[in-house]
Request: fold
Amino acid sequence: MNDNWKLISNTHNLNDLYSYFHNIYQSNRSKLPEDINWDFPDKIGKQIKLVSGSDPKSTYFRYPVSSNETQDLKESIVQKESLESMAENSKASGKPFKAFVYVDSDYNVQESYNLDASPLTDILIALKELNDFFKRVHVAFRVKLTNGN
Reply:
C-alpha cells in the first residue's frame, strides 16, 4: 500500500484494499468486454470510506472487543438510554423495545439500557450494499471473463 508492497494477509484497512483493487481495475478496464457497464458508482467509494473511517483496522466484525473501550461501547447493541427516550422512539416507529432496567429498593429507575439499539446503522447499511455490489461484480467477472468457471 502507498507504493510499498504488503502481504494481503497483513492488510485489513478496507480503504487501502479497495484503492489497490480499484487501481488495478481502472488500469485494465479497457480490456473488459464492452457489452456490460463496468462503471463503479461514486457511492461505492463513499461507502468504502465510511466503513473504513469507522473501523480502520477492520476489527469490528472480527473481534468482540478491541483495544478501544470507547469504540466498543459505540458498537454494542446494548446502549444506555432513558426509558422515556425508548418509549418515544417506540411510539414513533410503532415497534416495541426491549430494555434492561436497574431499579433501587423503592423501584425507582436508576439506569436503563436499550437491548435492541442499532449501532452504526449507516455503516451496517453500507456494508450490506457493498456486499451486494461486489457479489454482482464477482459474478460479472466470472461470467464475462471466465465463461462462468
About this structure: The beta strands are 79-80, 99-103, 109-114. The helical segments are 14-28, 42-54, 69-75, 83-93, 121-146.
